[in-house]
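Q: what sequence does this backbone want?
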């Protein structure tokens, strides 16, 4: 058995920065070649970054990507680079592109593979932009090793759709069956001894286990190693974890790159081949490389390997297996990387966070401090007449623990002034309202609560204007789901860091962060106090909402599972476990439905679950289905 030295380039690309991405690719290529790589593999749509969305509808953008690819190709020597790019079919029309991979060496593009299977579920919209490829080749020849190249979904194969049981698709069920349409099967039938897959696979909780399960199954079934390369970094509401890896022909992971970090490495990929032997390669270490050529007739690129790029199996492992992150650690770093990239890639350096002394704002401030450094985070306490002394001191203690800037701007002067201004306009004169009725009292109370929240939003945006800080909002997924937010108040900002994090998970993340050895950053009081918006005397969340132990699972079933209220009520084990009566279920689902208009006007935030609000879930605002 021999090994092929494969370079894995896991890069944090800048979407649309065609020249910058090309430079990044060339630098990574040089590094991998310097480490002895026989081939260097990049991620899906490397040149543009993933997903480019409607930039792909701009002919000038596609032409610019082609020029950037040419620049990369000119930079290559005899070691091939496998680089993703959008390719114009020349057919015209609204859908005119292939999602392609170029195989470049000796200064030119020598072969192109075009993605077959175009996902159109969850966050994916590829059929909007691409037409499917039809050829399983060409195979890339490196010395005597035939390498099949494919793209992301092509590895999975069986047709997949989003459904309640599997929001990200069917996770590889039916691999190798009659419906398996993966071009990888054809490539192995053509003689591929190694399968290389370039990916733009966004993060969600548990996704890496699914990826590796499919790759291991493919490798073991087909008897060939699999190289899986993914990009890393945040892009709007998506975050990419990298976690690139290699399996051997038996399905065991033999190399894994760190999650959420740029990394260029060379991995020793063990090959099963009757054709290759160390004696055939010889002991020439002079670095000479034989001529690369494209074999006529079979569409297979042929490239002889450089000395030392293929070696006996006893060669030293170049890259070890990075351990997978713990579940909470994984989510934390997903949020950190997403926040860092959203802020910095959009040209900001500093952020502002409204600090209430509660769990949500504490989590956001801690994530921001880890993402940007505490010197770039500004905590703003905006106490009202209803804010407890504990909330004020807890916010100050959090800021001190994190080492972030802290300032206090009381809202009472504005609150009193605006309430006075509204007094005449909100009286019963001409309104027909009964000011003594419970409904009118409740409406007046809600008006006052929302007024306070909107004052805070105005103050944070004023600080943003004055100092150029980007405002981070602090609403979690549970509260966002049921509309327990104030439009133009606590939704005012540019990025919603925990928008896809359920309330109970926020607590778990804060507990995890406090266990990381650098002190109890998030004060115990912030974690232990009953959750409250503190917009009226003695207010608690459970006065307006079901307990979060009940609410979180109901939101998950309705939003991520796509179950209707009726279907949820048909599951007695759920009702028994949650002690939920039908009225609670119907109330929660109704709240989720009517809050859609608020979510449409709220800032984006990173996706960490199987279905987030935004790309994943596109519900009508005007909606009579119950």
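A:
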């Amino acid at each position: 058995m021999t090994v092929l030295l494969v370079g894995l380039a896991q890069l944090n690309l800048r979407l649309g920065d065609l020249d910058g991405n090309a430079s990044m690719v060339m630098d990574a290529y040089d590094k991998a070649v310097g480490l002895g790589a026989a081939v260097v593999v990049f991620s899906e749509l490397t040149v543009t970054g993933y997903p480019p969305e409607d930039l792909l509808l701009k002919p000038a953008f596609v032409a610019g990507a082609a020029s950037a690819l040419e620049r990369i190709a000119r930079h290559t020597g005899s070691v091939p680079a496998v680089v993703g790019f959008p390719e114009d079919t020349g057919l015209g029309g609204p859908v005119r592109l292939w999602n392609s991979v170029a195989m470049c060496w000796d200064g030119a593009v020598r072969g192109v593979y075009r993605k077959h299977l175009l996902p159109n579920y969850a966050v994916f919209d590829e059929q909007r932009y691409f037409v499917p490829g039809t050829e399983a080749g060409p195979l890339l020849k490196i010395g005597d090793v035939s390498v099949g190249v494919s793209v992301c979904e092509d590895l999975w194969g069986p047709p997949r759709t989003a459904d309640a049981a599997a929001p990200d698709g069917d996770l590889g069920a039916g691999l190798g069956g009659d419906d398996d349409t993966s071009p990888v099967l054809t490539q192995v039938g053509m003689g591929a001894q190694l399968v290389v897959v370039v990916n733009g696979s966004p993060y969600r909780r548990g996704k890496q286990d699914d990826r590796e399960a499919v790759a291991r199954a493919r490798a073991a079934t087909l008897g060939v190693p699999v190289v899986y390369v993914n990009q890393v970094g945040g892009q709007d509401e998506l975050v990419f974890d990298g976690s690139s890896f290699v399996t051997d022909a038996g399905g065991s992971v033999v190399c894994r790159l760190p999650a959420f970090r740029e990394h260029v490495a060379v991995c020793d990929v063990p090959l099963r081949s009757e054709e290759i032997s160390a004696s055939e390669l010889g002991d020439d270490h002079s670095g000479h490389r034989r001529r690369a050529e494209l074999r006529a007739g079979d569409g297979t690129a042929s490239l002889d390997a450089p000395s030392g790029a293929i070696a006996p199996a006893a060669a030293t492992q170049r890259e070890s297996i990075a351990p997978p992150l713990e579940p909470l650690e994984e989510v934390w770093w997903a949020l950190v990387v997403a926040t860092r990239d959203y802020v910095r890639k959009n040209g900001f350096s500093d952020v502002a966070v409204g600090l209430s002394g509660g769990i949500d704002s504490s989590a956001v401030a801690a994530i921001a401090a880890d993402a940007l450094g505490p010197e770039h985070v500004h905590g703003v306490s905006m106490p009202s007449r209803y804010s407890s002394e504990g909330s004020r001191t807890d916010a100050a203690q959090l800021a001190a623990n994190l080492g972030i800037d802290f300032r206090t701007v009381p809202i009472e002067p504005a609150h009193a002034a605006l309430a006075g201004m509204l007094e005449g306009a909100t009286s019963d004169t001409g309104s027909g309202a009964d000011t003594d009725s419970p409904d009118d009292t409740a409406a007046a109370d809600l008006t006052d609560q929302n007024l306070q929240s909107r004052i805070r939003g105005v103050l944070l945006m004023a600080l943003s204007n004055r100092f150029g800080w980007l405002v981070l909002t602090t609403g979690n997924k549970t509260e966002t789901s049921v509309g327990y937010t104030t439009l133009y108040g606590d939704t005012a900002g540019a990025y919603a860091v925990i928008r896809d994090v359920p309330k109970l998970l926020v607590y778990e993340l804060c507990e995890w962060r406090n266990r990381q050895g650098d002190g109890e950053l998030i004060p115990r009081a912030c974690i232990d106090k009953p959750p409250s918006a503190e917009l009226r005397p003695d207010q608690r969340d459970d006065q307006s909402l079901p307990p979060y132990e009940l609410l979180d699972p109901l939101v998950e079933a309705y939003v991520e599972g796509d179950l209707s209220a009726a279907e949820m009520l048909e599951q007695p084990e759920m009702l028994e476990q949650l002690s939920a009566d039908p009225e609670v279920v119907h109330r929660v689902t109704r709240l989720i439905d009517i809050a859609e208009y608020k979510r449409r006007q709220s800032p984006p935030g990173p996706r960490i679950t199987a279905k987030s609000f935004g790309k994943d879930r596109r519900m009508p605002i005007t909606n009579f289905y119950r």
